[in-house]
Amino acid sequence: MKNSVAKALLNSYSYLEFKDLISNLLHEGKSTGNVQSEDLLQYSTLNEIRLKRLDKTLVVPDEIKEQLKSFENEYIWLVIAEGWCGDAAQILPILNKMALESDKIDLRIVLRDANDELMNYFLTNGARAIPKLLIIDKESGKVCNHWGPRPQGATDLIQNYKKEFGVVNEEAKTQLQLWYLKDKGLSVQEEVVEMMLSSVDECVCV
């Protein structure tokens, strides 16, 4: 585990570097990841627009700011993502805004398809679902906890849709994006801060 985290961090991106990577690949007609397709390219194009919009509109409430500033230890927030992932495009700007509120948090991003070993430690019901946020104690390098790929409300929406219709289609994805729009990033902030507060004294390898 620790070696997988260390290897991933060596090839990680800052939030700005991740956005630049997406833009540069789009100029070449490509998306991130091992698989290239017109659908993934279209998703990446939409996500670039989402990232720019959310960077301008997302707000961290004062209560969350105070909690973020209360941490004494230093942490790395390592996010496993891809440029074509719609959930990642909704969640990464939130995590970036949160990290900017604390000098104890360093946000880093790695690509799922380039980090198979690390991804396999954090499967969701056996699937390589992203984004995945790993909370890492900076001094020890140990993973304290992990979160993702979606906040609970978004997870419930997709599970209920699949239960009713048997598939996750474009209509489900549209409803999911509308959920994120209405939520304004609050669920992610609340869930991640709650997890951080419950994990600061329990930082062990998982």
Looking at this protein, list some descriptive labels:
4-stranded mixed sheet; 206 residues; 9 helices; Glutaredoxin; alpha+beta
Fold topology:
Elements (H helix, E strand, L loop, with lengths): L1 H9 L4 H13 L10 H20 L4 H8 L5 E7 L4 H15 L4 E7 L4 H4 L12 E6 L5 E5 L4 H14 L4 H14 L2 H14 L7
Parallel strand pairs: 1-2
Antiparallel strand pairs: 1-3, 3-4
Helix pairs in contact: 2-3, 3-5, 7-8
Please characterize this protein's 3D structure.
The radius of gyration is 16 Å and the shape is globular. The chain is built from nine helices and four strands; from the N terminus they run ααααβαβαββααα. Strand 1, helix 5 and strand 2 (105-111) form a beta-alpha-beta unit. The chain has 206 residues and is of the alpha+beta class.
